[in-house]
Amino acid sequence: MRDVAIVEAPSVLGLRPTGVEELPEALLAAGLAEGLGAVRAGRVEPPAYDPERDPDSGVLNPDGIAAYSVALADAVSAVLDDGRFPVVLGGDCSVLLGNLLALRRRDRHGLLFLDGHTDFYQPSAEPAGEAASMELALATGRGPRVLADLEGRGPLVRDEDVVALGFRDSEESEAYGMQTLPSALHAMELDTVRDLGAAESARRAVGLLTGDGAGAGYWIHLDADVLDDAAMPAVDYRLPGGLTWQELETVLRTALSGGGAVGLDVAIFNPRLDPDGSLAERLTECLLRSFDGQG
């Protein structure tokens, strides 16, 4: 079992205060820290939320997200400096920027991006200006400089060092005008995962992230909406289909085996849409089983 440290990152600066900010409390109440034998490495509180879209960048809370990303990167860096494995509990998907900034300060790293959406919008196409729909584009250096060039280190991850696995939003994204994924980025949409099987897809993803020139390991980003909508309805932007619980567990177990993974975040699960707590318990169980099965 890895030496895990949990960082709470309850930011909704890239979305709206809908309830995803309560994710850390829900998973901790379900026993995540105890099950992982994890230490609690602190909570990074976000600045005040501004509901007005910034006219210059076209993004909600750009300066707040930039400042928060630096603060979160500091917290994650401290965990890494202690030789521990950070598990960051969001919050919305914009927390990915702080996590990757912590890695970018150190070395070249990869990203396993597990999300029902590709989150590759530019502000001009994103209907509400939400950075939680842009974070993969921002992380690869595309978008307003205030978020795409944090600390002058952008891009935080190279296209060729990213594997996006399990997404299913292609038609919806095209309708809104989202830019297509770059050719160098490794895309494994849901149909591909189904054709290959979850185990083989995960093995290929890990191979791409740990091959020659791939850097010093990879971060795992888990958006709860990568799961089948019938299995995980407690998310804000729902789509039909998705991975089963078993498929997600298989992918995570494979990604966590060996020494390639250097950290993980969980985002978008909304406890307000889980009134009896059963989905928080199921998500926690999935995470614990995935860590327990690591090599």
Automatic annotation (TrEMBL):
Pfam families: Arginase (PF00491). Keywords: Hydrolase, Manganese, Metal-binding. It comes from the Bacteria. PROSITE patterns: ARGINASE_2 (PS51409). Gene3D superfamilies: Ureohydrolase domain. Belongs to the arginase family. This is Arginase family protein. The lineage of its organism: Bacteria, Bacillati, Actinomycetota, Actinomycetes, Kitasatosporales.
